[in-house]
Amino acid sequence: MKVPSALLEYKVVGRCLPTPKCHTPPLHRMRIFAPNHVVAKYPFRHFVSQLKKMKKSSGDIVYCGQNFGISLRYDSRSSTHNMYREYRDLTTIMKVREIAASKCRWSAIKQFHHSKIKFPLPHRVLRRQHKSRFITKRLNTFTFLQTRNRNRMEVTHDKGHL
């Protein structure tokens, strides 16, 4: 028998069975660390039976899972985006809040705070009017490689005249 080395976080939700006195019983939720979902149900039943006097026969478990799904919406410069993220196990979101631009820490985010932001064109394609009609080699449209090739041609051209 393999002994589990890591504990996983499970969210267990349960309630009492509906009775004529209480048609919609309240839900009880508990975060439990256990090796699997079967073992996670036992501490839930134990603690709920002590706190709310709910036996195994008079109550049921509505949900026992370890996946957490979060749907969020954020506004960018171009439009509004909907995003859905799923988290597992011990990943816990402690706090979500909107912060001011002055409190931002990361330089990757700070660069987008300026109003006159410009983006480079990494893949520049030449228009038809600037192309030559017949060329001996295939055209390279990446800007970085074009500048490297231009610099090499200038260096070889200068050496050729010396």
- Across the major sheet, the strand order is 2-1-3
| Oligomeric status | single chain
Q: Largest sheet, if any?
A: 3 strands, antiparallel
* Rg estimate, integer Å: 31 Å
Shape: elongated
CATH class of the domain at 8-111: Alpha Beta
Distance between the termini: 81 Å
Mean pLDDT, to the nearest integer, reads: 74
CATH architecture descriptor text of the domain at 8-111: Roll
pLDDT under 50 segments (min length 5)? 153-162
Range of helix content: 10-25%
Number of strands: 5
Order of secondary-structure elements? EEHEEEHH
What percentage of the residues does DSSP assign to strands (E)?
A: 25-35%
Helix/strand-derived class? alpha+beta
- Could you tell me the CATH topology label of the domain at 8-111: Ubiquitin-like (UB roll)
Number of helices: 3
GO biological process, one term: translation
Protein name: 60S ribosomal protein L18a
Organism: Colobus angolensis palliatus (Peters' Angolan colobus)
Family: Belongs to the eukaryotic ribosomal protein eL20 family.
Protein traits:
elongated, two-stranded antiparallel sheet, Ubiquitin-like (UB roll), alpha+beta, 5 strands, 3 helices, 3-stranded antiparallel beta sheet, 162 residues, ribonucleoprotein
